[in-house]
Design goal:
- The chain is of the alpha+beta class.
- It has a single domain, classed as Gamma-B Crystallin, domain 1 (Sandwich), CATH 2.60.20.20.
- The protein is about 15% helix and about 45% strand.
- The chain has one helix and seven strands, in the order H-E-E-E-E-E-E-E.
- Strands 1, 2, 3, 4, 5, 6 and 7 form a seven-stranded antiparallel sheet that branches.
- A hairpin with a 4-residue loop joins strand 1 and strand 2.
- The radius of gyration is 21 Å and the shape is globular.
- It starts with a helix and ends with a strand.
- The N terminus is likely disordered.
Length: about 100
Amino acid sequence: MQRVALAAGAALTLSLGLPAIAEADATGSFIYANVNGEESTLRSLEDGVCYPLDNGTHTVVNHTDRRATVFPEYGCVGTAVTLPSGSAVNGASFAVRSVRFG
């Protein structure tokens, strides 16, 4: 009985004593451009944060290590398009105003 209590106590100590491992934020860059081809870049991106993009963004390139979800409205609202890491989307009918990573 004493061994069972000792084992249970050790297991509890281990489970409570280990710090939680936080997920790192996105690394890399997210490039976006307007219809005139003028480019801007986002870096040092936090997961879950909604980033506004310039009005008239029609090209996006996700060079981060996370998926990027782009939205047609500011505040990350509207019908979203998800871009896996390393992908790009462009076109005159494609317009986005905000992006979130993670």
